Amino acid sequence: MHEPKKIFVADDDQDILNIIEMMLRSRGYEVVMSSNAEELFACKAEDLPELILMDIWMAGVDGREICGRLKKNKLTSAIPVLFVSANSQIAAITEDCRADGFIAKPFEMKLLLQKVQEHLHASMQAQTCDQISQD
Amino acid sequence: MIKGDKSYNDLLTRINELETKLDESNEIIESIRRGEVDAFIVQNNGTNEIYTLRSADKAFRLFIEKMNQGAVTIGDNGIVLYANTSFAKMVDVPLERVIGQVFLGLIPEAQRQPVSQLIAAAWRDKESRGEITIPGKEGGELPVALYLNQLEIDGGVALGIIASDMSLQKEAQEQKREMEKKDEFITIASHELKTPVTSIKGYIQVLQFNFQQQGNTHAAELLGKVDAQINKLTALISELLDARRIENGQLPLHFDRFDFSALLHEIVEETGRLLPQRLVVEDTTEGVQLFGDRNKLGQVITNIIDNAGKYSPPSSKIIVQAKAEQNILALYVKDQGIGIPRDQQQKIFERFFRVKGKKENTYAGLGLGLYISAEIIFRHQGRIGVESEEGKGSTFYFQLPVIRGENLSASA
Lengths: 135, 412
Ligand SMILES: Nc1ncnc2c1ncn2[C@@H]1O[C@H](COP(=O)(O)OP(=O)(O)O)[C@@H](O)[C@H]1O
Ligand SMILES: [Mg+2]
Fold this sequence. Notes:
- The structure holds 2 protein chains of 2 kinds.
- By secondary structure, chain A is α/β, with parallel strands linked by helices.
- Chain A has 4 helices and 7 strands.
- Chain A has a single domain, classed as 3-Layer(aba) Sandwich (Rossmann fold), CATH 3.40.50.2300.
- The longest helix of chain A is centred in the C-terminal third of the chain and has 26 residues.
- The relative contact order of chain A is 0.15.
- Chain B is of the alpha+beta class.
- In chain B, a hairpin with a 4-residue loop joins strand 3 and strand 4.
- In chain B, helix 8 crosses helix 11.
- The C terminus of chain B is likely disordered.
- The interface between A and B is medium-sized, with 22 and 22 residues.
């Protein structure tokens, strides 16, 4: 059995964090919750998550800015970032910030799980390709 | 004073002559002003003198005369050589009293200092610009932007001054700011309303999942109904806010390439939960790609199916038919409901419009769904419409252009 995939969830709303955690745990993911996405930058390389779900407006923290920094950083640029937000411009913001996808609030549990799976799968394939080409 | 012994009749004739001449002169001046005259001949001591107008460009003269900005030319002695009507209106002096006046004399006392500085600067640097306020109508203030430019006329020099009434621009800016404020309010309100709904919906779905795992299908089913109602609430929130956005002219759409059939089936599944066993789907659009805002088009389909369910008897069937022919995709939603009177079939796409009648009054709604749907379809270069007979039912449809070929990029 593989190790459970680690997913980092950032939102300033504790209820949403609980909900997403319950949804993801029910499918066997490991979940790291945070009300401050800045914590990502304090992570050691081996502690980095395999996928990031992040709100856009997070009480003083701007998800767009965090996403920009993640995508510029070599260590984190390959981690898929999905915005989870009630912002009506979410599709445009996702494109502008080069995030990997988005889930509009309020969301369907089914859709959330499906997107998470899709992006984990895609990034795993990309990694395998990388490794093959490096070998 | 009466000279000589001319009779009363002679005098009358003379007055008539003079009046005619005056009329002629006025006509000539008017014609020059209107740009109808390029040259005229004056008889002087038996010889004809031809006077041409230097700037014989009619269009240009007319333009200056008619333009909204004030236009003035002053000589190096500060005297007004020319002014247009707009300028006369700005300084509230009749046009015929503006020409020949000292320019600074027309400017309110308080603004003479800055204006004289602008004039000096224009003589020195060939041009200058600045903004002043002059008394406007009804005791208000009129912001005026001045642009001064040195001109060479008749071998001499003059200053051309263009005075632009900035109040319209200021008003437009103000309106723009108001709109932005409104839009910001809508954006924030939308976000704030959706946030608690997200939590409610989330907990409901987790509970539903847990009940399913425990085999309590009844509880899971009930929660499914709660979830469907929450979706309705979400749709209402979006409807109100989208209608406001359309009014402000800024309903944001995000165009992307997507599979229509997949979207249709998602929506049918979702709307079908509140219309059990009523939707009959005939879809032959498999693989058809559209370029558009997937969420918003989903909203249109939801809307039309919801309406079909709402305005028809509880167990009657609703036929949802999707076809693609050539470059057009069409969706038809046919119900066996109350129908719509012919004279109101176009009006139902207007904001807040709802058919009135004994029967119709018993249905609740905001009258925004079709208004928003029509806007969304138009923004996709599509068509939306209805065929309906009272008491028999309605068929709502829309048509959208289809993407053909594989290599079309998905960027907007
Ligand atoms: N399928 C239908 N059958 C009969 N009448 C309809 C149907 N769909 C819409 N209408 C009429 O058009 C009006 C506008 O529809 P809509 O914009 O969706 O607003 P709402 O449903 O909230 O009243 C409705 O009030 C109703 O009178
Ligand atoms: Mg409706």
